[in-house]
Amino acid sequence: MAVQPEALARHRLSRMALNRMGLWLFLLSETFFFAALISSRYYLQGLARPETLNQALGLGITMVLLLSSLSAYRAETCIAHGDRKGFQQNLLATIALGLLFVVGVAMEWREAFVHFPPNTGFGSIFFTMTGIHAFHVLSGLLVLTLVYMLGRRGHFSAGSSWGVEGAVKYWHFVDVAWVFIYPTLYLVT
Amino acid sequence: MQNGRLRSALARGRWVLVALVALTVVEYAVALVMKSGNLPWMIIMNLVDAVLILYYFMHIAQLWRKEE
Amino acid sequence: MAFAPLLRGIGFGAVGFLLGSGLGAIVRVTMGLDPWSAEALVVVGYIFGLVGWLLGVGVWGTWAREWFGLAARRGEAQGWRRYLRFSTDHKVIGVQYLVTFLVVMLLGGVLAVLMRAELMAPGKTIMTLNTYNNAMSLHGILMVAVAVAAIIGGLGNFLVPLLIGAEDVAFPRLNALSFWVIPPVAVLLLLTPLMGGFDSGWTAYPPLSVINAQGQTLYLLAFITFGFSSILGGLNFIATVIAMRAPGMTWSRLPIFVWSIFAASLISLTATQFVAFALLSVLLDRVAGTSFYDATQGGNALLYEHLFWFYSHPAVYIMILPAFGVALEVLAHFSRKPLFAYKWVVGAFMAVVGLSFLVWAHHLFTSGMSDFLHLPFMVTTELISIPTGIVFLSSLGTIWLGRLWLTTPMLFALGFLFNFLIGGITGIFLADVPTDLHLQDTYFVVAHFHYTIVGGEVFALLAGVYYWFPKLTGRMYSERLGKLHFWWVLLAYNVTFIPMFWAGLHGMNRRVADYSPELGGINLFISIAAFVLAASFLLMLVNLARAWVRGPAAGANPWKARTLEWQTSSPPPAENFPAEPQVVGAPYDYGVPGSRHAVVAAKGASEGEEKRDGDAAPRNQED
Predict the structure, then answer these.
(1) Over 70: is that where the pLDDT of C614 sits?
(2) Helices vs strands, H then E, count in chain C
(3) A114: domain range?
(4) What domains sit in chain C, N to C, each tagged with a CATH number?
């Protein structure tokens, strides 16, 4: 007889707490990746910052992402209190805001190709950093979409919402990463 | 009762967002005003941002709080 | 059908590869580029192919179906078929790792033999200079992979849950995933010769690694994938040790091997991300047109060396910490004494973890980095000799006045101590800036790190393989052949590598196929010794293969050891223990009156029938 994963729940930590710990460890690991990116920026470019950055767009997409964190928080809070409708609406809003952020990054890239293409020092950093972050946003959107589909089919409830919690935590982490990336690319001098 | 708890939790989320937006605006303003050497200020403000999200949005305290 | 999961994985992988490379070509056309670029298409194709392979081999059936609201398929195969599928049993995964990496080690060994054959005489002998560079690089990365993953992935997976009294790791499916990304890594590395190989050494410094043959791209993809596996594996071990310990298994009762895996996992969870980014940036320079390492465009090759060694120096502790764990474990059991200074050893492990992040730039003493960095990195590097010294003293204190039982694993553990002492002491000359400036990139370095990794880690790996072989397979190997293997390896190993120190001091550079003629004699000597060394591993292969097929039954506890893995049958059942063990004392209190480590009740047994551990005749399936 094989040991099935859920059979492990009888240990002192609940499956939920174990999942949480696993996710936090993964996020800790990811932090080191972003730390490598950010330190590379300072190693190669010091505090130099091109004047051709589109500051309005940078501030705009930052606000969009912060707002999406709020709606993600609301979605998680709603399902934890049994409010399915609020959960679905807020999750949809989060996905929409995430897509808006991706569109913003795409607009940013169009301009960046002209002002500091990838084969320049700042361009290398800029495209890699925003690209890797956008990859995280896209994977987060994928997970949120799966959660949304499952939610529509009646999955998740007040007592059983790890899928929502995990997806939302990851989404917040992507936001935290941007909170550091944004000034590193746009503001620091 | 259940509804009241939900409402207060949602209100808390709104206040956190207000703080985050305000901090970001301050960061932007600092970058406009300080043309050099703003890195330490940025780091401090980013850390506050991160702590707000980690604590209020990601419930990091769940890791060491006793399970309900 | 035993091979169905593998075939499905290969099929899905192939479809994914075609899909990805087609998508890559379309993107290139829309960007106004020539659609055909072998490297770019291989990269995109590989990413999709990897996903396809994983889904096909088992992720879809046992896991991903749940993401779409479908029921996951359950059920394990029996017997040898388990090893060919996405099994979530940590014991199966451990054996999968161990067998895979023993094969990889033999492949790397064959390359080493070829290199030594080329080096038997100065000038070109059996291969072109470029072939030599490729063989040397491939040997390096294969062996680094073995060193990083064989003990942790193989022995760690099999034994950590058993040692802490758990029935599996914290995330069994993630565990299976971290193993099944390994086969693509091996395939990529073995395919590199088809794309011109890679001649950058395992370290892949730019600018060379940005401009050389396309095989380099396969190396980069393989290493990044391997890092992914390493991160997930580390995550799983940390969560397992924190959350899955049996009742009573407090932190101060953890067997030392578990501590060593825990410490190494802290490093692999975090530092690996730095090498992932380092390799990714080289990949982007090659295929996406960035200029991280093009000095004419604001790039800087030193950035790579910093990022790379920020992982790769801690990585040597990913290799050696579990080796310490195995060696101390074996020494304590076969000295029949409590592990000396247990708490100091745990502290030393944690100190090594902390310090390992502060020493990386000692690899850059001759790179041209700022001079003011030399002193601090020299000091931090030498500080590491304090915790490693504590581990060494603990091992001496453990065997001190013990009643040594000189079995094959014990001999290998003692051999580990001897070799690692040489490796450690010669390291001081490389940590010291004034001597390192002369020794850098000579055979002195080659000899030093082989002493720590082969003489150290591989000896510990062999100690562990022999020690736990009865538990893994339920069979006993031939002690006579095992001991013969030990003496053969120990002598051949030292006769091979001691002269390399001398060769290095006399100007033999590393990573070269040719050298000045006056070094011909010593190189011929080293080569012959190396062939003798390589042959010794065939003896182990014969011994273990024969024992696995028709060795005598080993019984539950052939070594009469006290730790938990020996208190269940060999090999253990799927659920590991008949009932959850209760841990009541320290693991190594041999000879302490009235002490016991754990109580393992038989299923449904009353209090009186529980199995006792310790020196008293152990009950097992046979009696």
Answers:
(1) no
(2) 22, 2
(3) 59-189
(4) 4-67 (no CATH), 87-550 (1.20.210.10)
Count of residues for chain B? 68
| Total structural domains within chain A | 1
The number of distinct structural domains making up chain B is 1
Chain B touched by A93 (CB under 8 Å) = no
In a domain, B10, yes or no: yes
Q: What is the CATH number of the domain that holds A126?
A: 1.20.120.80
Tell me if B38 is assigned to some domain: yes
ipTM of the complex: 0.93
> pLDDT tens digit string along A15-74?
888 999 999 999 999 999 999 999 999 999 999 889 899 999 999 999 999 999 999 999
Closest CA to A20 of C308, B65, C194: B65
- CA of C244: which chain A residue's CA is closest? A11
Q: For residue C535, how many C-alpha atoms fall within 13 Å in the half-sphere facing its CB?
A: 12
Distance, in Å, from the CA atom of C30 to the CA atom of C180, rounded to the nearest integer, reads 35
Whether residue A183 is contained in a domain is answered as yes
H helices within C150-214, ranges in order? Answer: 157-163, 172-180, 182-191, 208-211
Q: How far apart are the first and last CA of chain C?
A: 37
CB A4 to CB C74 under 8 A? yes
Averaged pLDDT, A101-115: 95
| Pairwise CB contact (< 8 Å): B20 & A187 | no
Residue-by-residue DSSP string for A8-61: GGGSSS-HHHHHHHHHHHHHHHHHHHHHHHHHHHHHHHTT---TTS-HHHHHHH
Q: pLDDT of C215-226, one tens digit each? A: 999 999 999 999
Q: Looking at the domain assignment, is residue A47 inside a domain?
A: no
The DSSP H or E segment spanning A84 is helix A84-115
Estimate to the nearest angstrom the gap between the alpha carbon of C537 and the chain centroid: 18
pLDDT band at A13 (very low <50, low <70, confident <90, very high): confident
Question: Which 3 state secondary structure label does DSSP give C390?
Answer: helix
Which of A23, A43, A119, A135 to mutate to probe the C interface, most C CBs <10 Å?
A: A119
Interface contacts (A, B; CB < 8 Å): 92
